[in-house]
Amino acid sequence: MMAAHGSCNLPELVDLYATAANWAETEGDVDRCCFFLTQAWVYAMEAGSPDANQLRNRLVAHGRDVETSNNHGELL
After folding, report:
1. What is the dihedral of CA 11, 17, 19, 22, to 10 degrees?
2. Where are the domains of the chain?
3. How many Å apart are CA 18 and CA 68, to the nearest integer?
């Protein structure tokens, strides 16, 4: 993870933090899971990754964000 931070490898950071979130979730540690999900989501948005929406949806599912929609009723 430190190497990915050092080289600003955003796709790798998304993957590493998402993997850490998955591990924390299987361990039942929702707070840690959501911390890692938040990091993955931020890097995914910065990278323009299509994974950003799925990561955010997981945060919504854990009550760490709320669903929003645009004027057309589409979830953002």
Report:
1. -140
2. 2-61
3. 22
